[in-house]
């Protein structure tokens, strides 16, 4: 009976033993399957992360090289070792580059591209310090420091030339020297360290006040001519940090047609000191109701930044922010 009982116990215990082994094996298989899925999931995430990183060009020059419609700017950068270094290393910037179709001349070995100093300056000027996606460009203008520091183009205490970003009639725009403005035609292209906007027209370097009067297509040069005749312009051109309020051509034409005499004109030019501020550079964002002293010793009130119409003592500014080497010019519709 004992033997039989022992046999029964052994027989009854076999299924339990086998079940235990099976459960262990099943658990192991389940564990391995879970581990395998986790490994595959991790690898997939890694691949996605790598692909995301790989999709963003490592620097500004690499991004430009990928664009088929900015080959002129790209070629100009690559032929200049200073610019090549800048566009490979620059971080936390916004770059505005003109598309090929906006250039009249396509050959980079022909004028105006043969003046390497001018080219280097403008390609430093279009690099804005800071990140400015199109969503940040509103009807309230932003005045941004740039990478242009060459003393031939910068006679400012801040040591860097300035560009303006603003929305005009629903279009995001960029303004640099001579008051020339371009529209952003394609924005928010990213590279590691910044943003690239494509614009629909080339921009210009800043010039002196006198040269701006000659070169700017919308500028008024009656005022500049008279300032030059009596020596005030030379003084302003050599001075650091100047704001000049110029008068529109139509206002000067009315004055000229009134047959003003030379003594009266001399007196008027002396009065034009009322239209110059130095030291002090007052871009459009300074027009917040503040009172500033002019070269004549009198004060004027700058207003309108918050409502979109700049004024000087209540007189409308018809063109703002004509950027010069040593400051800025605002054109008024009439004498103050």
Fold and architecture overview:
Helices cover 38% and strands 23% of the residues. It has helices at residues 2-55, 60-66, 71-78, 81-89, 116-125, 209-215, 222-229, 232-238, 249-257, 262-271; strands at residues 93-98, 127-129, 142-145, 162-168, 171-175, 181-191, 194-199, 242-247, 276-277, 290-293, 299-303, 311-312, 315-324, 327-332. The model is unreliable at 7-11 and 48-53 (pLDDT under 50).
Output the keywords.
7-stranded mixed sheet; 336 residues; alpha+beta; 38% helix; 14 strands; 10 helices
Which secondary structure elements does this structure contain, and how are they paired or packed?
Blueprint (H helix, E strand, L loop, with lengths): L1 H54 L4 H7 L4 H8 L2 H9 L3 E6 L17 H10 L1 E3 L12 E4 L16 E7 L2 E5 L5 E11 L2 E6 L9 H7 L6 H8 L2 H7 L3 E6 L1 H9 L4 H10 L4 E2 L12 E4 L5 E5 L7 E2 L2 E10 L2 E6 L4
Parallel strand pairs: 1-7, 8-14
Antiparallel strand pairs: 1-2, 3-4, 4-5, 5-6, 6-7, 8-9, 10-11, 11-12, 12-13, 13-14
* Order of strands in the sheet with most strands: 2-1-7-6-5-4-3
Order of helices and strands: HHHHEHEEEEEEHHHEHHEEEEEE
Radius of gyration: 34 Å
| Biggest pleated-sheet summary | 7 strands, mixed
Q: Any low-confidence stretches, pLDDT <50, length ≥5?
A: 7-11, 48-53
Mean pLDDT, to the nearest integer, reads 83
Shape: globular
Number of DSSP strand runs: 14
Q: What is the CA–CA distance across the termini?
A: 128 Å
Helical content stands at: 25-40%
**Counting H and I runs of at least 4 residues, what is the number of helices?**
10
Strand content: 15-25%
What class would the helix/strand composition place it in?
alpha+beta
């Amino acid at each position: 009976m004992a033997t039989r009982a022992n046999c029964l116990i052994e027989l009854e215990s076999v299924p339990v033993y086998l079940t235990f082994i099976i459960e262990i094996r099943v658990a192991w298989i389940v564990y391995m399957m879970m581990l395998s899925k986790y490994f595959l999931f991790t690898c997939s995430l890694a691949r996605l992360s790598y692909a995301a990183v790989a999709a963003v060009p490592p620097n500004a020059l690499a991004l430009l090289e990928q664009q088929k419609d900015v080959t002129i700017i790209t070629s100009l950068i690559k032929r200049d070792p200073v610019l090549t270094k800048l566009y490979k290393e620059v971080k936390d910037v916004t770059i505005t580059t003109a598309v090929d179709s906006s250039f009249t001349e396509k050959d980079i070995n022909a004028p105006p591209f043969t003046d390497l100093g001018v080219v280097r300056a403008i390609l430093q000027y279009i690099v804005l310090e800071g990140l400015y996606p199109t969503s940040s460009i509103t009807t309230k203008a932003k005045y941004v420091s740039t990478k242009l520091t060459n003393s031939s183009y910068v006679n400012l205490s801040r040591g860097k030339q300035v560009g303006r970003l603003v929305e005009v009639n629903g279009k995001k725009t960029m303004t640099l020297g001579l008051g020339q403005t371009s529209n952003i035609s394609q924005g928010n292209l990213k590279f590691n360290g910044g943003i690239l906007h494509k614009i629909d027209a080339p921009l210009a370097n800043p010039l002196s006040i006198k040269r701006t009067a000659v070169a700017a297509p919308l500028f008024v040069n009656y005022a500049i001519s008279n300032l030059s005749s009596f020596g005030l312009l030379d003084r302003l051109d050599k001075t650091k940090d100047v704001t000049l309020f110029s008068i529109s051509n139509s206002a000067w034409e009315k004055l000229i047609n009134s047959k003003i005499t030379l003594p009266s004109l001399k007196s008027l030019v002396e009065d034009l000191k009322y239209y110059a501020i130095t030291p002090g550079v007052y871009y459009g964002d300074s027009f917040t109701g503040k009172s500033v002293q002019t070269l004549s010793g009198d004060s004027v009130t700058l207003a309108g930044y918050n409502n979109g119409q700049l004024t000087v003592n209540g007189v409308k500014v018809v063109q703002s922010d004509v950027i010069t080497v040593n400051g800025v010019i605002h054109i008024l519709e009439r004498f103050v």
